[in-house]
Amino acid sequence: MSITRKEALELLHRYVKNEKMISHSLASEAILRGIAHRLGEDEEKWGLAGLLHDIDVEVTNAEPAVHGTQAEVLLKDFAIDPEILDAIRMHNEIASGKKRSTVFQHALAAGETISGLIFATTFVYPDRKLSSVKPKSVVKRMKEKAFAASVNRENILECEQIGIPLDEFAALCIHSLLPIAGEIGL
After folding, report:
1. What is the rounded CA–CA span in Å between residue 21 and residue 24?
2. Which residues contact 59 (CB under 8 A, 6 or more apart)?
3. Residue 142 and residue 155 in contact, taking contact as beta carbons nearer than 8 Å
4. Lower CB density within 10 Å: C or N end of the chain?
5. Is the pTM higher than 0.85?
6. Where do the domains of the chain lie, and which CATH numbers do they carry?
7. pLDDT tens figures, 100-113
8. Residue 151: how many other CB atoms lie within 10 Å
9. pLDDT attached to residue 2
């Protein structure tokens, strides 16, 4: 039997205390579910990958050389699909030492990364509400390297490797976040 979302959420809260990281994980879950739906993939499985992808962020102090590698250790006692563990490990290519190659890996990298750009875009809107954000604004901000400078644009552009153009990807991700906007402070 596979890990439930409730168990995954409890684990996330056990290892991640920073509320912004919790919001990022919830956002990543919603986005990955939306991408899975769009691609005809398993929404539950992809959602779990989004929810748990940063479970080791505080254990590793987000150190790029190791972040992602400790997730498997933290999750070893739970029935987790090996593809989820692989996508989690591969969302940080630096630590994995390999290039992403599967649709699932690209989707997680692009989806979790665009969440940061969407959050930053939302916070520059006068009302600071996700419901006001237009996909074209996110795409425009993508081109402004100084805006949310820590957001890796190359990761976001991996959406094209899974067959979703950037403008459509931005719209899909915003739409996926709207139902949880209040929960994640948007």
Report:
1. 5
2. 15, 70, 74
3. no
4. N
5. yes
6. 5-180 (1.10.3210)
7. 999 999 999 999 99
8. 19
9. 83
